[in-house]
Amino acid sequence: MLCAFCTPAGATRIKDIARLQGVRSNQLVGYGLVVGLNGSGDSASTEFTVRSLVNMMERLGVTVNANDVKVDNVAAVIVTAELPPFSKTGSAIDVLVSSIGDADSLVGGSLLMTPLKGPDGQVYAVAQGPLAVGGLAFGGKAATVQKNHPTVGRIPGGALVEREVPFALDPGGKLEYQLSMPDFTTVKRMAEAINNHFKQPLAHPRDSGSLQIHIPEDERGRLVNFIARLESLAIRPDSMARIVVNEKTGTIVMGEDVRIATVAVSHGNLNLVISEHDQVSQPMPFSRGETVVVPDTTVEATEEAGNLVVMEMGVSIGDVARALNAIGATPRDLIAIFQAIRAAGALHAELVVL
Q1: Residue 226 Cα distances to 205, 229, 237, 327, angstroms
Q2: Could you give phi then psi for residue 96, rounded to 5 degrees?
Q3: Which residue of 38, 192, 194, 295 has the fewest C-beta atoms within 10 A of its own C-beta?
């Protein structure tokens, strides 16, 4: 009985590898002012900050001359947020506040009411509140101390949703899922898992990245329960054999399906050592010569003996790793080895160099 509830090894839920078309987040952006800074705001040379402050004061009924405004506790910022799907009016979302002027720090500041707009130009949320900055910066003329990025802060729950994004869950009795990583084998396994679970042909793959599902008549009144059951089904996604290397950081990531044909690898390191010692040239007594320093340079070039290792056809990523570690290769050496193996036609995987 316990085996009936066991999840196959390597299985993943459908909700983790695919998403329902239309159920997506939306990006919001707005321009605002942060006030209450302790002398770390924008300088007077940042004209758009001064003009924004003057315009805000005029809207509040205070008439000021822009030439007389000399404040350094205000900073102009860009406010960004992500509107989750099915967000309702009045719900709170997090916002990210980033300085766009020459402010030194946003620590201790408060964001004034800032409308957040979508790509269509409509206001979907309004942000306001004190910033939480995970950094600091202070110092004088001779030295400064800085930790993290003090010109970027967050306001948890700092924006209220004012407009909802309309979306219908039942567009004509069909649902369409989009795979995060398109693959023909994965989408075929998804369709088979859904059809076997509901015992009727509901899922039909359209291509390698999308799957169309017909909603049964008896499930249209409880669509949320139907989607929850569907997304909880576990399948084993397929993936391409791929090796990703980053030559700048020496990072190597290999998938489990990487295979290497029988190949012999030899890798030797060339060590170049240059040492320089100063020697003093002392002239004979009562001579007209001068005491000078003569450099003595020694150059030694040595090459370590290369170990020729035969790597049989790799049956797993562990065998490939052990075979490469046998020659004592470092991560940067492995990058060169993988490139050479690929050039020899013995690497049965895609090599991605970042």
Answers
A1: 19, 5, 22, 55
A2: -115, 130
A3: 295
